[in-house]
Amino acid sequence: MRRLLIGADVGGTSTRVAVADRTGAVLTVARQPAGNPNAVGVQTSAERIRAAIGDALRQAQGFSAEAGVDAVVLGIAGFGTAIEAGAEFLDAALPDEIAASTVRIVSDLAVGYASATPLPRGYVVIAGTGSGAAEIDRGEILARRGSWGWLLGDEGGGFWLGREAVRSALAEVERRQPYGALTRAVLDELKIPSADPADALAGLVRVPYLSRPVELAELAPIVTGLVDSDPAATAICAGAVEHLTRLLLELQPRPGRPIVAAGSVLQTPGPISAGFAVRLHNELAGPVLEARSGLVGALWLAACDSAARTGSEPPDPGLHARFVGTLIER
Hints:
Helix content is 47%, strand content 20%. It is an alpha/beta fold. The chain has a domain at 2-115 and 292-327: ATPase, nucleotide binding domain (Nucleotidyltransferase, domain 5), CATH 3.30.420.
């Protein structure tokens, strides 16, 4: 019987599930809409995970008439909510043919770390819409900084960048200062009339409150794009680098252990990713690894869980490389 591994990357944009065999061959990837339980609710999250796993398994069965599932790792943004939901969540999220005893729920930070390296212990900093950092050991969080969400934290992430851009524009308009490039770009992007300062001020206050908070993250590329031409954008980007560096350094990383950068802000070439890499090189004299697909991390952790459960030797690092190679275009 062919033995299968299942890895899931469940986030605020999509729910993706990969099925692989123990040789590292990824048989299929299935997708469903966003599955973060904090964003869509526990029940909807479970339903979408179940649908994606079911789709992936049906497609994978085409490669092998008989197959069994050795291990499942669900990497979930908002994993704490899923864990708190307990057995009811797993019952709703798993197809009937998968035993709950084969499943582990881990953080999106854990799969982000494991996507970049097969080494079990190290550090990850994530800056997408939000931000956070963690020390990871075999998929478990030993210590964490940030990841508090847009209302309480997320400094240096996309939402924070957008909010700081709006605040900078508000300050210029309120003080009747000449509009800088960033202020003009924010007003244009939010479709706020700029001729009358009173209208601009009212619009800058009103429009963000009428939108979902995370939509401010759409302003992040405007900020980074103006870093060389607008002093406010320069200061915001420098602040982001400082916040993200501090998140990691507060974990007191040990030299020699991997440091992984994840999320769109840190993985898009630009002033923040470059500044972060330079700061870490100066502080720690070590390289920063770039996260791969979260499915790589979830499958690798599933392979490690399978080996641990059967008392086998840990999987060869070459298996991790094969996951990367077969998932790079997916």
